[in-house]
Amino acid sequence: MKQRNRSADLSALLLAAAALVLCLMMPRPLRAAMTAEESRRVLETGLDHFYNLEYDRAIAQFERLRADDPANPSWQNHVALSYFYKELLHGGALEGDLFDASNKFFKTRKFPVDAALDRRFHEANQRAIQLCELRLKKAASDGEALYACGVAYAARATHQGLIERSAMNFLGNARRANDFHARLVRANPRQYDGYLIPGLYDFVLGSLPGPVKVLFFFAGLSGDKQRGMHLVENVSEWGNGAKHDARILLTVMYRREKRYADARRMLELLAESYPRNYIFPLEIASLHRAADQVPEAIRAYERVLEQVSDGTPNFAQAPEARIHFELGVLYERVEDWESARRHYEQVAGSRGATAALARESVVNLDRLRAAAP
After folding, report:
1. Rounded distance, CA 373 to CA 361, Å?
2. What is the number of other CB atoms lying within 10 angstroms of the CB of residue 318?
3. Based on the structure, what is the number of domains in the chain?
4. Of 150, 91, 88, 100, nearest to 125 (Cα)?
5. Domain that holds residue 85
6. What is the pLDDT of residues 303-361, one digit of tens each?
7. Cα–Cα distance, 258 to 252 (Å, whole number)
8. How big is the CA angle at 182 (ends 179 and 185), to the nearest 5 degrees?
9. Is residue 266 part of a domain?
10. pLDDT for 40-86, tens place per residue?
11. Confidence tier at 177 by pLDDT (50, 70, 90)
């Protein structure tokens, strides 16, 4: 039984890491046929849409760049990741608490694959790998190609971990991504973006259970959790294109280390930069809850519902049913029975309601009514 538990813990940790290897990471641009100013403007517009969960608009911008310079692996990576994260959003994978310590998502849910989005991701991802590897055959020290290859293989690992649920395939491609970026930073130590994937790789391997870590060591794999976290922290301070991605990864690392205030600080920076992304404030509320800061969690969840009502762009897509359920639980904890009932009653008719969540809400409502004086 213990061995099975260790295996499950290993899979959960690897898959959670896979899901954030490149959660919102976009590579820096390579050469393009557009004027430098036009290329920069299109890229910045696309990235703003991407980080604000506006994937169709992001894809439109990145497709312009790819059409202008189809031999550029960087633009292929942009397009691939946009299709991939559109699929993740539609499948409910980005709706909060995905990366907490229990990893319930990986244990209980089979991901609903969108065949069209999945195909477009694979086409662009494969093309990116072909292009950057071709460049490396001609010049093994090509820094831009090394960076693009690392991004492409990390994206593939992410897909295998989160969609395919294949820990071993994830590990193989994550190792390839790590190797490309390790080569990059050895050649250019001041390429700070290149430290992100090696830092995450170090953190994941260093976080494995002891017996599994020993087994991996004899297979030639080792890591150091603290060193990995330090590398990602450096990217969050000194990185160029990967600064925001490093902050996203740090929220996961800090949460796993129960450094809730540090995780919340990262999310607050992200929420300020991308105010149309409803996931960041939801994760802030979740961190308050994890830290047992119940009044703060209630205020944060209620604030998200206010933004939904006020028409804050994109917040209409927030998972209101889950928010109402969480508020019901939290109000129970502070013995505000009326507020708890009010939120439980709204679960079934709210966006994102599932049969399981509605049933659990009914059970909680029945319990509250039975206990009422």
Report:
1. 20
2. 23
3. 1
4. 150
5. 2-257
6. 999 999 999 999 999 999 999 999 999 999 999 999 999 999 999 999 999 899 999 99
7. 10
8. 155
9. no
10. 999 999 999 999 999 999 999 999 999 999 999 999 999 999 999 99
11. very high
What contacts 251, CB < 8 A, 6 or more positions away?
263, 266, 267, 270, 283, 287
For residue 249, what is the domain's CATH number? 1.25.40
77 vs 149: CA distance, rounded Å: 9
194 touches 184 (CB < 8 A): yes
205 close to 221: Cβ distance less than 8 angstroms: yes
pLDDT band at 209 (very low <50, low <70, confident <90, very high): low
> Hey, how many other C-beta atoms are within 10 angstroms of the C-beta on 64?
17
Q: Does some domain include residue 316?
A: no
Token pair 């019901």 is found at: 328
Report the candidate in 243, 283, 241 with the shortest Cα–Cα distance to residue 265: 283
pLDDT tens figures, 186-206: 999 999 999 999 998 888 888
Cα–Cα distance measured from residue 244 to residue 91, given in angstroms and rounded to the nearest whole number: 23
297 in Cβ contact with 289 (< 8 Å): yes
Task: Classify residue 251: in a domain, yes or no.
Answer: yes
- How far is C-alpha 351 from the geometric centre of its chain's CA atoms? 22
Contact residues for 93 (Cβ-Cβ < 8 A; gap 6+): 19, 105, 111, 162
Task: Say if residue 87's pLDDT is above 70.
Answer: yes
Give the DSSP letter string of 65-134.
Answer: HHHH-TT-HHHHHHHHHHHHHHHHHHTTTTSS-TTSTT-HHHHH------HHHHHHHHHHHHHHHHHHHH
Which residue is associated with the tokens 């959670």?
Answer: 16
Instruction: Name the DSSP class of 306.
Output: H
Examine residue 124 and state whether it is found in any structural domain, yes or no.
yes
- Specify whether the CB–CB gap between 208 and 216 falls below 8 A: yes
Distance CA(268)–CA(257), nearest Å, equals 18
User: CA-CA distance, 53 to 303, in Å (whole number)?
Assistant: 19
Q: Nearest to residue 260, comparing CAs of 298, 293, 234, 227?
A: 293
